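Q: Convert this sequence to structure tokens.
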Amino acid sequence: QVQLVESGGGLVQAGGSLRLSCAVSGGTFSRYAMGWFRQVPGKERESVAALSWFTMSTYYADSVKGRFTISRDNAKNTVYLRMNSLKPEDTAVYYCAADRGDDAGFRASLASMFYDYWGQGTQVTVSS
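A:
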């Protein structure tokens, strides 16, 4: 059974930084495209960033472009989301997800429909 466990969330002041981690177990991490999403209670889930496994293509939501960086360490079965210049509007529960599809080597999609496995989330709160 594939499990994803996020960590690294917390409370940070506006302008600060955090690095989220997502450890994946029970599957073939190196063959998964990975994505980060976030959700605020009462609002729809929002895509944040994605990373394919072969071409290492990345894709970012416009709202985080230039501030967030997604990366992976296949030796540690972990994907990261480095978040700089945080804003109060970045406050949300952040989820990682894994795409095991046939095109995952080339696909860095922000569409949640492509993701097969999801973590439980980690809270990020940015104070003004």
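The chain has a mean pLDDT of 96.
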